[in-house]
Design a protein that fits this description.
mainly alpha, 64% helix
Amino acid sequence: MKNITLSIPDDLLAKSREYAKRQGKSLNDMVRELLKRTVSQNTNDLLESIDKSRSELGIDTKRGFNREELYER
């Protein structure tokens, strides 16, 4: 696991540490969870956007192919 350095205003850092303590977590754990949720949400948004575009274009993503169709020339 890699370490990073962040610049955070003193008042925000103090409030963040207090909040983390009330939640029974470390500030490090909270930042990690927030980043994970943010990245996951953005990934889900992208996948939903792709699915929506496919639907709007009439692309059938559920259709399967059999071996003969894949190798037709």
